[in-house]
Amino acid sequence: MKQKGNVWQGSLGSRFARRHHPSFDKTKLDGWRAMHKERDIPGVKWDEERKAAIRHGLQGADSIEDQSISTFSRGELPHFAGINTFLKAPYIEDVKDVGSYDVAVLGVPFDGGTTYRPGTRFGPQGIRRISALYTPYNYEIGVDLREQMSLCDVGDIFTIPANIEKTFDQISKGVGHVFASGALPIILGGDHSIGFATVRGIASHTDKKIGIIHFDRHADIQEKDLDERMHTTPWFHATNIPNIPAENLVQVGIGGWQVPREAVAEARKRNTTILTMSDVDKLGLEKTAEVALEMAWKGVDAVYLSFDIDCVDAGFVPGTGWPEPGGFLPREILRLLQLVAREGICGMEVVEVSPPYDVSDITSLMALRAIVDVLGTIVAHGKLGSHKGIIRG
Ligand SMILES: [Mn+2]
Q1: CA of 134 to the centre of ligand 1 (A)
Q2: Residue 366 contacts residue 312 (beta carbons within 8 Å)
Q3: GO: which molecular function terms (predicted)?
Q4: Distance, CA 308 to ligand 1 centroid (Å)?
Q5: Model pLDDT, residue 300
Q6: Distance 209 CA to ligand 1 centre (A)
Q7: What one-character DSSP code corresponds to residue 22?
Q8: Phi, psi dihedral angles at 149 (to 5 degrees)
Q9: Distance from Cα 368 to the centre of ligand 1, integer Å
């Protein structure tokens, strides 16, 4: 490009006239606000972690100038080192201790409900592995998860590969245990069949009603598939639970060529709310979130978030069981997740991540991002622990 006055002449002949904005107020930028908000976040836990690293991992070698660096990696750094729990959170060996944390991540490595591409039994491993990439701080949301909440990784449910009903019982017992402890359960799937068992686990420890916000390309509400309960069937069985009303099931992003007619008939019969991608386009993200929240929260006391990674356009999430083009762009879904998480949740699952089909961990990264964005939003909006009021005493 070459400049003529203040008009830039591009190589293809395009003209870009740069206008001046002398009165532009940069203090109105989100970037400016975020830059200054960081000042208010404490660094106490970070200091504690570095001191513990020296205590447990030995002071670094004599040539290391930074006195906070240990010989053995303990804690967040370096990101490529260490035993890989979710976000390097403490691994809780005795699950009876889980209630001393605000949030507990647990894996459900199960793909026995898969009807096409398998591999989601490796989903928890994939998400944990790429989670090593992240710091606990988000600039735009303005939160540091390490400072502003306590997080643990309680490991995986002992699933039974050849038996979906026994696996469901294990999941419900495990998720119920975490929920009843007071820790917010964040579930790493697994295929979507687990959605019935996760919701049942929570529902069995509350007398209150729960709505569900469900992001997916698929409706997942038929009774059976291939003669069994599969990853296409969780909401049929979940909404049979008395305190899980089907009218409070809001399904966002549904569409394409993989929505079985049986599921559509069931959604119609049970009066769920379905917002397609074209509904989202017409309403816009803000209004879509408002509508979803209104329908999900109507007459209930808590909302569960079920996030199927395949709601994102297939081009961004190759590592999934039933990829479908035409879904959300990453930026759209992250915005939507943040908008709906502002009112708090009683649990979240991220399902259908299949690392064997993934490329460069991109699908696992998207799943991770969905989780940390939701957690960051919950913290930023003062909703951490908001689910505790519905736990049966
Ligand atoms: Mn799906």
Answers
A1: 26
A2: yes
A3: agmatinase activity; metal ion binding
A4: 5
A5: 98
A6: 25
A7: T
A8: -155, 165
A9: 17
User: What is the Å distance from ligand 1's center to 233 Cα?
Assistant: 11
CA of 352 to the centre of ligand 1 (A): 7
Confidence at residue 12, expressed as pLDDT on a 0 to 100 scale: 58
Ligand 1 centroid to residue 337 C-alpha, Å? 16
Please report the beta strands in the chain, taking only residues with DSSP state E, as ranges in sequence order.
2-4, 7-9, 15-17, 103-108, 137-138, 143-144, 151-156, 184-189, 210-215, 249-254, 273-276, 302-308, 348-351
Condensed to tens digits (0 to 9), the pLDDT of residues 46-79 reads: 999 999 999 999 999 999 999 999 999 999 999 9
Distance 223 CA to ligand 1 centre (A): 16
Positions of the chain with pLDDT lower than 70, given as ranges: 1-14
Domain 86-390: homologous superfamily in CATH = Ureohydrolase domain (3.40.800.10)
What is the whole-number distance in angstroms between the Cα of residue 207 and the centre of ligand 1? Answer: 29
Q: How far is the CA of 220 from the centre of ligand 1 (A)?
A: 7
For ligand 1, the distance from its centroid to the CA atom of residue 7, given in whole angstroms, is 49
CA angle 231, 234, 240 (to 5 degrees): 160
Domain boundaries, the chain: 2-40, 41-80, 86-390
Q: What angle do CA 131, 134, 135 make, to 5 degrees?
A: 135
d(CA 274, CA 264): 10
pLDDT at residue 203 in the model: 98
354 vs 189: CA distance, rounded Å: 9
pLDDT of residue 15: 75
pTM above 0.90, yes or no: yes
192 C-alpha to ligand 1 centroid (Å): 7
Helix (H, G, I), strand (E, B) or coil at 89: coil
> Measured in angstroms, how far is the CA atom of residue 226 from the centroid of ligand 1?
16
In this structure, the chain runs to a length of 393
Nearest residue to 363 via CA among 297, 291, 314: 314
Q: What would the pLDDT profile of 237-249 be if each residue is shown by its tens digit?
A: 999 999 999 999 9
Q: What is the pLDDT of residue 393?
A: 84
Instruction: Identify whether the C-beta of residue 61 lies closer than 8 Å to the C-beta of residue 70.
Output: no
CA of 321 to the centre of ligand 1 (A): 8
Output the pLDDT for position 4: 54
